[in-house]
Amino acid sequence: MDKKSIIIMSLILVLIPNVFAEIIVQTSNSGYTNHHNFVVNKYFFTQQQVQQQQVQVKIDQNPEIQIEPINTTATVYACEEVQMNFKLSNPSKNGHIYKFSIADFKGTAYLSQNLVVNPKKTVLINFVLVPDCRSSGIINPRIIVETENERATLPIMIDVIPIDIIEPYECEYYYNSTVCEGQDYLKFYESTNYDLDLSERFFDPDADRLKYSAQALNLDVKFRGEIAQIKSRWDFIGAEELVIKADDGKGGKAFSKIFFVHVIDNNRSKLENFFAYYWPHLLLVLFVFLLIILLVVISSKDDDHHTHEHHSHEHEEHEENHPKKNKRPTNKKRMPKK
């Protein structure tokens, strides 16, 4: 073999193992964590580079989750919903149940809890996110996809534009500006009374005495003369409409305009509001309970007194009918000692 042939053979022997050098690497798709191990054939110029790049990991020959982001970024106002989606593929040979959840998100999410995907199939997953009304700036919630054996995460990016927030204690939270600026808008704290003067709302030309009535789901209305005393249910916060009826007792009836009642939070606990609302009833129950105990005690003492008098009387009668006899001392004879 000549010198030229020897050089060619040497080059071939050096290049062949490098061309087919096999390394194992772990990758993650950009934008979401969906780790799967796989084998990559790669060409390196030297055997030393191959050894440096060699990574030893466990190979997953049958991954169950593959995610392709479709619509995962958006810009919305706070309290505004945004529709998003992604593709989910099952590359394995078996069907799987995929469970979905969301993390690092404050607001309302509409997302399927689970879904069955057949082998070698791809489905489009749609979901809706509504950022909290107080959110602002860029938020990064995460959609979590799980099977029995794997877990993948799809990050979302939403740029939330802040808005002016109307709180529940503000009239505009429930009603429009016309109602809020009108005389029929009534606002008071829960567990307190609102006194409404009905003489300014009703008038009878015959000067008859009017009888008032009202029905409401979350309001208790009592009438004292021309005053309607309105009180909310102890656990109610919100808005309710109220209509009051007037009757003159002679067939004449009239209805008031709609009163727009707004009950706001008094920042007290439910237990405090419960006692504040029912304390007259609780005092009455306590008074009746103590009165019953007092009567029972007095009755028991009277029975004991009568029983004692009865026994004393019987004892006196017995003494009168059976006087005591004087007992003579008995002389005991002593037995002689043996």
How is the secondary structure organized here?
Elements: H1 3-19, E1 22-27, E2 36-41, H2 47-53, E3 66-71, E4 73-77, E5 82-90, E6 96-103, E7 107-110, E8 114-117, E9 121-131, E10 137-139, E11 142-146, E12 151-155, E13 157-161, H3 177-180, E14 185-189, E15 193-197, E16 211-214, E17 219-224, E18 227-232, E19 238-242, E20 244-247, E21 253-255, E22 259-264, H4 270-321
Report on this model:
This protein is α+β, with helices and mostly antiparallel strands and 338 residues long. It has 3 domains: 3-53, no CATH class; 66-161, Immunoglobulin-like (Sandwich), CATH 2.60.40; 171-264, Immunoglobulins (Immunoglobulin-like, Sandwich). It is 24% helix and 36% strand. The protein is built from 4 helices and 22 strands. The chain has helices spanning 3-19, 47-53, 177-180, 270-321, and strands at 22-27, 36-41, 66-71, 73-77, 82-90, 96-103, 107-110, 114-117, 121-131, 137-139, 142-146, 151-155, 157-161, 185-189, 193-197, 211-214, 219-224, 227-232, 238-242, 244-247, 253-255, 259-264. The radius of gyration is 45 Å and the shape is flat.
Q: What is the gyration radius calculated from CA atoms?
A: 45 Å
Task: Give me the CATH architecture of the largest domain, please.
Answer: Sandwich
- Quickly count the domains: 3
Number of helices: 4
Major sheet attributes: 4 strands, antiparallel
Helix % is 10-25%
Mean pLDDT figure: 77
The CATH topology assignment of the largest domain is Immunoglobulin-like
Helix/strand order, N-terminal first = HEEHEEEEEEEEEEEHEEEEEEEEEH
Question: According to CATH, what is the class of the largest domain?
Answer: Mainly Beta
Q: What is the topology, as strand order, of the major beta sheet?
A: 3-5-9-7
